[in-house]
Specification:
Blueprint (H helix, E strand, L loop, with lengths): L8 E4 L3 E7 L7 E7 L5 E9 L6 E3 L5 E2 L4 E8 L6 E10 L6 E11 L4 E6 L5 E8 L6 H21 L2 E8 L16 E2 L5 H9 L11 H8 L18 E7 L10 H9 L8 E7 L6 E3 L7 E3 L3 H9 L4 E3 L5 H12 L5 E3 L11 E4 L2 E2 L8 E4 L4 E4 L10 E6 L1
Parallel strand pairs: 2-9, 11-12, 11-14, 14-15, 15-18
Antiparallel strand pairs: 1-3, 3-7, 4-6, 4-8, 5-7, 8-9, 10-24, 12-13, 16-17, 19-23, 20-21, 20-24, 22-23
Length: about 400
């Protein structure tokens, strides 16, 4: 407890690690805050850096006098001169009768050049509820056929990880009373005898649905009362993560905009990281077409609303005009189970050819089909094909 009769010093943070910086280049400075939480004036008599590595650290602090409740902030700097690890202590002397000297450990590392290492861990959910939203308007036959043909790629991820999952299907039709957010067929679980067959039956919704597609409104209806404890009872679990996947060749025509929907959707779980919204839809801009899939010709208008929601909820979108539906479904399954195929870097590589990527210590080749690639537009490492890191693996990325 604070000493209400004497000066009482608090120094934060309790330690500072500057991380890696190139030799003879200053790392970003860090702030130190001195507070007087006591009942009498605090007089700081000295601020110094001690230890063998002290010359590589510096500070801009003075010796303040702080009245009760006041604080003083100053910066500490680190400039390595060799490729070694550095350790020192910032020491603050004052008239605090109980803590005359307070120490803050300082650490940093230097290198011959600016090679950074980032470490990622591939985690996954243990429970997940996946809501599929199928556009059942007249133009969707080709796309649904592609989902049916490649569904094994999606469900295999769930079976391999042994997840506790729920799968359910609704449509974008908000005009038909029998649909309007209601689950079509039954809720498919990890205890379902033939989950693939059940899913195939559920997504075979035909092409007689409303041409006024309202996927976002359908999701809201499916996951709120009265349906969530009525017709859709048993699907949504409080303990499970939630993933929604829309398959459509049109944009959304619901009454809400993407931003409002995403805000509501992220709030369905205490932790927004436990929800994702993804889509197989038309490309942004002018949409897309795929005549090479004949007789399953696919054309689509831009799915702008869905793409915006995916970006705001940690999901992903895949083009409905792709010739590689297996890859699209693989990416969606990875996202739905809480894993990642894209890893954002904190720094920007200066030379892509020198990026080194490893999974559990094994080097991954640069490849757009079975390896990694770099996406400069959002500064991410993308894994492709069977090179996507398995659950529980550690990913290391080194780059200049």
């Amino acid at each position: 407890m604070p000493d209400l009769e004497n000066p009482d010093i608090r120094v934060s943070p309790s330690e500072i690690d500057f991380g890696f910086a190139p030799r003879d280049c200053a790392a970003p400075s860090q702030e130190i805050t001195i507070r007087n939480v006591g009942g009498a004036p605090l007089e700081v008599s000295s601020i110094r850096i001690a230890g063998e590595a002290a010359p590589s650290f510096d500070h801009q602090g003075i010796e303040p006098v702080l009245e009760p409740g006041e604080e003083y902030v100053f910066e500490v700097e680190f400039t390595p001169t060799a490729w070694v690890n550095y350790h020192a202590d910032l020491e603050v002397d004052s008239n605090d009768p109980n803590d005359a000297t307070v120490g803050v450990p300082l650490a940093g590392a230097g290198g011959e050049d600016a090679v950074f290492e980032e470490i990622f861990f591939q985690d996954h959910y243990t429970e997940v509820d996946v809501l599929w939203v199928i556009d059942n308007s007249c133009s969707m036959a080709g796309a649904i056929s592609q989902v049916e043909s490649n569904f094994d790629v999606f469900i295999d991820q769930f079976l391999t990880l042994g997840l506790d999952y729920h799968l359910a299907v609704i449509t974008t039709d908000m005009d038909a009373a029998s649909e309007s957010g209601r689950i079509q067929g039954s809720v498919i679980t990890n205890n379902t005898a033939n989950p693939k067959a059940e899913f195939m039956a559920a997504i075979a919704q035909g092409s007689a649905g409303s041409n006024d597609e309202k996927g976002l409104a359908a999701v809201e209806a499916a996951l709120t009362e009265p349906l969530v404890s009525g017709d859709n009872a048993g699907f949504l679990r409080s303990s499970a993560a939630l993933a929604t996947i829309v398959v459509t060749d049109e944009d959304d025509f619901s009454y809400m905009n993407a931003s409002n929907f995403a805000s509501w959707y992220n709030g369905l779980k205490n932790d927004p990281n436990d929800v994702t919204f993804s889509a197989i839809c038309g490309d942004s801009g002018s949409g897309c077409n795929n005549w090479n899939a004949f007789p399953d010709v696919i054309t689509a208008l831009p799915g702008s609303q869905y793409i915006q929601v995916a970006g705001a909820t940690g999901g992903t979108w895949q083009s409905i005009c792709t010739q590689n539906f297996d890859h699209a479904l693989q990416h969606l399954s990875i996202t739905a189970v809480g894993m990642r195929f894209a890893f954002a870097l904190s720094g920007t590589p200066s030379d892509v050819s020198q990026i080194d990527v490893q999974i559990n210590g094994s080097t991954v080749p640069y490849s757009g089909t079975e390896g990694w690639t770099y996406d400069a537009s959002n500064n991410t490492i993308l894994f492709n094909g069977n090179s996507v890191p398995d659950a529980g693996t550690t990913i290391r990325v080194n780059y200049p």
